[in-house]
Design brief:
CATH architecture: Sandwich
Helix content: 25-40%
Structural class: alpha+beta
Shape: globular
Distance between the termini: 9 Å
Number of domains: 1
Largest sheet: 5 strands, antiparallel
CATH topology: Immunoglobulin-like
C-alpha cells in the first residue's frame, strides 16, 4: 500500500467518524466578579459544568458558588453575545431564575437537568427571537460552542450580576483517542515505507 492511499483512507475514516463523536457537549465555567461586564471586585467565586445531551435534548447544569458579598436573587444562562467571551446578552434560559436555584444565600450548589424540547426551559423572549423551541436549543448550543454564552449569578449587592463566566468547551476524550490511533497508524506505516 502506498503512502498517499493510506493517508487518504485514514483521513476519510476520521472525517466519516467525526459526527459520531459529538452527541454530548460538555462546557466548564469559572465564575468571578472580574468576568462580569463591567467587572466588579466581588470576592465571590464558583464553578459549573454545563452538559448538552443532544440525543436526549437535555441540558444539565451543575454549579457551586461561595463568597458572594450579597445574597443570590437569580441565576441563568445568557446568550448570545456579539463577540466571543465578551459583552452582554439577553437571558436565554428560564426567568427570573433557574427553577429551584438557591436564592437568599451567599454560597450554595445546584444540579438540575432541563428538557430542551420544552418552552419552559427558556426565556420566552429567547424562544420568540429564535423562531421556536427547536431553533432555541440549537442557538443556545451554538452560542456555547462559539464562546457567546455565559452563566450569571445575580445578588442583591450586584443586581446586574455578581459573578459570571463564559461556557468553555471541554475536549471529548474519545476524539483525542481516535486522532491518536490514526496518527499512530500513519507513523507505523511511514516507518515501514
Amino acid at each position: 500500500m502506498k503512502l498517499k492511499p493510506m493517508l487518504a483512507t485514514t483521513l476519510l475514516g476520521l472525517s466519516l467518524s467525526a459526527p459520531a463523536w459529538a452527541h454530548t457537549y460538555v462546557f466548564d465555567v469559572i465564575l468571578s466578579g472580574l468576568a462580569e461586564s463591567p467587572p466588579n471586585a466581588s470576592p465571590g467565586s464558583g464553578v459549573a459544568t454545563v452538559t448538552f445531551d443532544m440525543d436526549l435534548a437535555t441540558l444539565r447544569l451543575q454549579t457551586s458558588f461561595s463568597g458572594l458579598t450579597g445574597t443570590t436573587t437569580a441565576a441563568h444562562i445568557h446568550c448570545c453575545t456579539a463577540a466571543a467571551n465578551a459583552g452582554n446578552a439577553g437571558v436565554a434560559t428560564t426567568t427570573p431564575s433557574f427553577p429551584g436555584f438557591p436564592t437568599g444565600v451567599s454560597a450554595g450548589s445546584y444540579d438540575h437537568t432541563f428538557d430542551l424540547t420544552q418552552a419552559s426551559s427558556y426565556n420566552a423572549a429567547f424562544v420568540t427571537a429564535q423562531g421556536g423551541v427547536a431553533n432555541a436549543m440549537n442557538a443556545l448550543l451554538a452560542g456555547a460552542q462559539n464562546g457567546k454564552a455565559y452563566l450569571n449569578l445575580h445578588s442583591n449587592t450586584f443586581p446586574g450580576g455578581e459573578i459570571r463566566g463564559f461556557l468553555q468547551a471541554v475536549p471529548e476524550p474519545s476524539s483525542y483517542g481516535l486522532m491518536g490511533l490514526g496518527l499512530a497508524l500513519l507513523a507505523w506505516r511511514l516507518r515501514r515505507a
